[in-house]
Each structure stands twice: as C-alpha cells, then as structure tokens.
Amino acid sequence: MRINFIKWSAFAVALMSSVSVFALPAPKYLEIKDVQKCLSETTKDTATFVCVPSKKPTQCSSSSWKKLKSLKGEQKVPACPSAK
After folding, report:
1. What is the secondary structure of 22-73 as a DSSP string?
2. How far apart are CA 39 and CA 53, in angstroms?
3. How far are the Cα atoms of 24, 26, 39, 79, 80 from residue 33, in angstroms, in the given order?
4. Which is more confident, 73 or 2?
5. What is the CA 51 to chain-centroid distance, rounded?
C-alpha cells in the first residue's frame, strides 16, 4: 500500500510541475477612458460584478458610453438587472 502512495505522490508532483500558467488579456472595456464612471455594480450571493446601467450616468462621457455600448460578444459588459 505504501508503494502505491509513493507512486501516486510522485505522479502528482510530476503532473503539477508540468502545468503551464498563463494570463488572459485584459477585457476591452478597461481600455475605455474613465470607464468606471460609466459602470455600476450588482451583487449576486456573495460576489460583486460590474454591469452597464440602462441609462448613461451623468459623470460618464458620451464617447466612453458609446464605446462601452458598442462592445460585442465576450467583451460586452452585461446590463445591470432592472430594479423590481
């Protein structure tokens, strides 16, 4: 039994040492000037997420709002849930 444990331990160490770590590129919305002035936050359970409000916040520039709203696919920031 002890031999099997040693074999599995050696396998686990070998596997962990071969795992590559990589970084994902930053989301496109972070490239928009003063984007934080255009975003809001929503909480689900214990997590907080950024979201796009339904109306442009007054402190958000029109050009930043237009760029934020033009993002597509995976780069698009989700809309904030509507208040009930």
Report:
1. --PPPPGGGGSTTGGGT-EEEEETTEEEEEB-SS--TTS-HHHHHHHHH--G
2. 7
3. 21, 14, 12, 19, 20
4. 73
5. 11
pTM for this one? 0.67
What is the DSSP code (8-state) at residue 53? -
Q: For residue 59, which amino acid is it?
A: Q
Phi, then psi, of 47 in degrees rounded to 5: -105, 145
CA distances from 11 to 7, 14, 17 (A): 6, 5, 10
8-67 per-position pLDDT tens digit: 444 444 445 555 667 888 899 999 999 999 999 999 899 999 999 999 999 999 999 999
Q: For residues 72 and 45, is the Cβ–Cβ distance under 8 A?
A: no
**Domain residue extents for the chain:** 32-84
